[in-house]
Amino acid sequence: MTVDWAPLGEIIEQHHRFVxxxxxxxxxxxxxxxxxxxxxxxxxxxxxxxxxxxxxxxRLAFLDPEGEIRQFGKTITAEETLDTDVHIVLDTSAWxxxxxxxxxxxxxxxxxxxxxxxxxxxxxxxxxFKDTTAAATGELVYQLAVALGYQIDQLAAEALYxxxxxxxxxxxxxxxxxxxMQIGAALIALGANPAALYERLYEQFSLPRxxxxxxALQRITPEFDGALAHTYVRWDxxxxxxxxxxxxxxxVNECMRVAGxxxxxxxxxxxxxxxxxxxxxxxxxNVAAVAEQFGGGGHQQAAGAILNGPISEARKKxxxxxxxxxxxx
Length: 329
Prior knowledge:
By secondary structure, this protein is of the alpha/beta class. The chain has 2 domains: 6-202, inorganic pyrophosphatase (n-terminal core), CATH 3.90.1640.10; 207-327, Diaminopimelate Epimerase, Chain A, domain 1 (Roll). It is 40% helix and 18% strand. It contains 13 helices and 12 strands. The strands form 2 sheets. It has a 6-stranded parallel beta sheet with strand order 3-2-1-4-5-6. Strands 7-8-9-10-12-11 form a 6-stranded mixed beta sheet, with helices on both faces.
C-alpha cells in the first residue's frame, strides 16, 4: 500500500505550529516516531511540541535526550495543547488510546492528522495517512521524509531505527519486508548504530524488572493442548519486587517462546484494579479481532485491551474469547 504524502506536505508547508502526540503507555515505535518527525519538522523551521498522556518509560528516555516530551496535565495544560495550528497523532487511530489528550484533540479547531499502521481504527475526524501493511509507524515517518525531500539527521535516524526495530522484533516478525530492511539500512547509513541501540533497549534492565519477569515466567500456564500460553502480573508485584509498570513491556513475548505455542496473552493488573491484556499470536490467528471485542485493538498478531478485574474474571473472559479462535486456526 503506497501512501500519497503530497497532501501532508501541503499541510506542513502551510502551517508553522505543530503538536505531536501518541497513545497511552507509549512504546518505542510511538516515541521514536514522535521524535523522528519532530526532528524533521524542526529542521524545516517549524515550532514543534510533543505531548503525551503517559510519562516516557525510563528505558526509552534516551530517545528524548533533551527532555522535550511533555506530559499532558502534568507539564503542559489543555489550553497550551490546544494552542497550535496542526495536531498530529502517531501510532494510533483509536480514541481509547488517547484518553484525555483525545478529548482535547476532539475539541481542537486545528488541522488534525493521523499517521498510523494499525488495523483497528476510529474516526478521529482527521486526515489519515495510514498503511496497515507497514511494519511500524516509524517506517511511515521515514517514507514521508524521503517522499517530500526532508532532512533526517542522526538523532532522527536513531529514533526511527528504534521505532522500526522494536515493532518488528528486531526484524524477525512476519511484518518485516524487504523494504523494511532497506529502510533499516538507510537509517544505519544516516548514523543509527544497531549494536548501541540494542544495548540501550534490551541490555539495561533493572534488577527489579528481572525479578518481576521471574514471577511472570513462573506463572506461565498452557491451555488448549499447549496452543496457548498465558501469565499475569498483580499490582502488588510492583511493590514486592521494586519494579514499575513499564517493566511489563514485552513480557508477553516470553509466553511465545514455549514450544508449540501459537497464541499468548498477559494480564497486567492496574492501580484501579482494571486489567490490561496484551495478546500475541503467530500468523493465522487474528488477536486484533479478539481485542476489539473488549474495546481494544491493534495488529493481527499483536493487540491489547482493557478488561474489568479481578484478574481471575479477566482471564476467563480472555480464554473464552480465544477458545474458538485458537481451536479453529
